[in-house]
């Protein structure tokens, strides 16, 4: 007679945990919408809080808030509630639709992504007039500086990878809105120069800037997660503005696909991406801003039939489930690495506005994927 032995406690726990993981990966559109609403509302309520450096909240036109606005715009379209658009429009009204302080610095251009999208919705010329004026000035007085780090006025050009999220999508949007080739030409010239300078062909990833090319962290090259997240999300925003049959679109698509396949290889078993992409064992702490941008880009790729769903959906599910697990009951997204330029630390009880923006971007694409 065959003896049926009782399951051990360990076996039962393994079965239960496996069931829990499967259940966690059943993504339902309404649940995605609910968590996005909770996160968006919490961030708006805490918009005036001190930032991750313990300082007074960021200037409303500074890049951290600009990244938040981009995510809130995506949420506003899903929520279909005018109050979110009104909140965003108030940002522009109070600041007279101006960009931030510096003429050439990419970080100070990022808020124009908000203005151009609101212009598309409301059609008011005042919303884009200052942006057009400033970008036309740059066109006629382009920065002639070096891309090498710490040379004079070096950040007047896109010589750090974060910049590829901040400024290039504005040029692409201006091209699409105005149909003026000059904006696309400038975008292609400057973007190509940055790619040639910062992109590592072997790893299909971007160095944060020139200063990291010769550095090593525990023997590994340093590819900062959020830095590459900025690039990956920025590629989405650029390609959204271009004709998919154009040579320019195909240029960006090539970079996007290379990064996507490399990121698939680098996702941790838990679903996030390590702060140093090649150094999982040295950076076990989850980080939600870079990971949100990766979930955003990968899901967008599947939604637009650029990436194979069967290949990438498991990573999307695992990544989104991990992100949701770091949202508190109140709606705060934890484990957002503070402002920096390299791998570092993140904490469950600390957040930042740009992390919220990235999460909402990811949620918007995940919602679309599972609403089809």
UniProtKB/TrEMBL annotation:
GO biological process: carbohydrate metabolic process
Keywords carried by this UniProt record: Hydrolase
MF annotations from Gene Ontology: hydrolase activity
Domain of life of the source: Bacteria
A Pfam family matched in the record: Glyco_hydro_88
InterPro entries listed in its UniProt record: 6-hairpin_glycosidase_sf, 6hp_glycosidase-like_sf, Glyco_hydro_88, PolySaccharide_Degr_Enz
UniProt-recorded name of the protein: Glycoside hydrolase family 88 protein
Organism: Flagellimonas allohymeniacidonis
